[in-house]
Amino acid sequence: MDRFRVVERALRKAAPHALVEAVQGALVAHYAAVSVDLLMADYAMTILQPVHALPCTADPVSVHASAPGRAFGAQQPHVERGQGADPVVVHLPVSVRGDRIGVLSVRLPVEAYDEDTAVELQEIAEILGHEIVVAERDTDLYLQARRADRLTLAAEMQWQLLPGRSCSRPEYDLGAQLEPAYAIYGDNFDWTTSASHLTLTVTNGMGEGIEAALLTNLAINALRNARRAGLSLADQACLADQAVYGHYRGAVHLSMLLLRFDLATGEAEVIDAGSPKMWRVRHGRPEAVELDAQLPLGMFEDTLYTVQHFRVEPADRLLFISDGVYDVASPAGERYSERALTRAITSTRLLPPSQVPRAVLHELAGHRGAIDADDDAMIVCLDWHGRP
Q1: Strands, sheet with 78-80, edge to edge from the N-terminal-most edge strand
Q2: Phi (first) and psi of residue 341, to 5 degrees
Q3: For residues 40 and 86, what is the distance between their CA atoms, to the nearest angstrom?
Q4: Which segments of the chain have a pLDDT < 70?
């Protein structure tokens, strides 16, 4: 059995909490590795934290100013070569279908690193990513390693709802981010894909803390229940509206954008039920997309929702933005949506969707200044490629 298959088998057979030890042992034994480290991206996507038997026992490294960060950002291997016979350090992105998880750093003797080894190590990092996703059902180790600080209970509930923070398919690339990462209120996003459609939900709930998280959980799970029952987009919105109103009797409500894209044609259905906004970048020009506004979920009993149609074209970029972004005022009183948002969308147009939300939120922090955020800030970025 060749060495790659031996490492793959070791990962498949490893206990959920022992993946790091398994890949370390296998790479040392079969690739002559000097050291092997797994670093996980934190919730704010600003640092990479080493994973050990006890999480966070070593210093984190910056996503923006480190060799592992270069591999993480570019989603390509980054090689550090020493002088002469010094070991080579290979930093390999660990991701699953476009969802960036972290970086596997492998230190090797210079004579042990060649083109075949580079290809095999990249595949091993991909296998490790899939095994981590499966292992997270049975261990908290990798979730703990993503935390630079303690999450509030509300944030814990919100993060558990999310499908991921990025996703790639031939027809599209998706990226999303929530801030403040460790104390989320009621904003959320959800997506699911099939052979023929992408369904995307962006929600902005009322309130703070546990109450906001409970409202969002109810709405998201009602939408999922309706979607998995095969209901139309309008019926999904109606069922979620009834669930929220039935529990809260109109005392609270939840804003939502609900979209369904045909992967073959780019034809899309959308229901605009509240405050999240949609922007489009077409031919390099950003513009707000005006939709037919309908009532938020749970405001009144038996609200009927109607679907609006539009079409996305290959090379279009769509951004979905919460009011915690576009309503933020500068110290001088200028709303972010007046001019700064357009500048941020334009300046990030060459970045991949997985990096756009973080970059725009960084610009938002500069616009806000020293004032603490008083609402969630959420951005979802969708690049549409279409089918040949």
Answers
A1: 61-62, 47-50, 35-41, 99-108, 88-96, 78-80
A2: -65, -45
A3: 26
A4: 1, 53-58, 370-374
Dihedral over Cα of 368, 372, 374, 377: its sign: positive
Identify how many contiguous H helices and E strands the chain contains and give both numbers: 11, 17
- Pairwise CA distance, residues 77 & 75, whole Å: 7
- Residue keyed to tokens 């200044």: 369
Contacts of 102 (CB under 8 A, 6+ apart): 38, 39, 40, 41, 48, 51, 72, 94
∠ CA 202-207-209, nearest 5°, is 95
Write the DSSP symbol of residue 293.
Answer: B
Report how far residue 138's alpha carbon sits from residue 92's, in angstroms, rounded to the nearest whole number.
25
Give Dmax over CA atoms of the chain in angstroms.
74
Neighbours of 86 (CB within 10 A): 12
- CA dihedral angle for residue 20, residue 22, residue 27, residue 32, rounded to 10 degrees: 110
Location of structure tokens 């576009």? 326
Instruction: Fill in the DSSP letter of residue 17.
Output: G
Inter-residue contact 318 to 36 (CB < 8 Å): no
What is the spatial distance between Cα 204 and Cα 185, in angstroms, rounded to a whole number? 9
Residue pair 106/33 in contact by the 8 Å Cβ criterion: yes
Give the start-end residues of each E strand in 263-331.
267-273, 277-282, 285-289, 308-311, 317-321
Per-residue pLDDT tens digits for 32-61: 999 999 999 999 999 999 997 555 456 899
The backbone torsions φ and ψ at residue 123, rounded to the nearest 5 degrees and listed phi first, read -70, -35
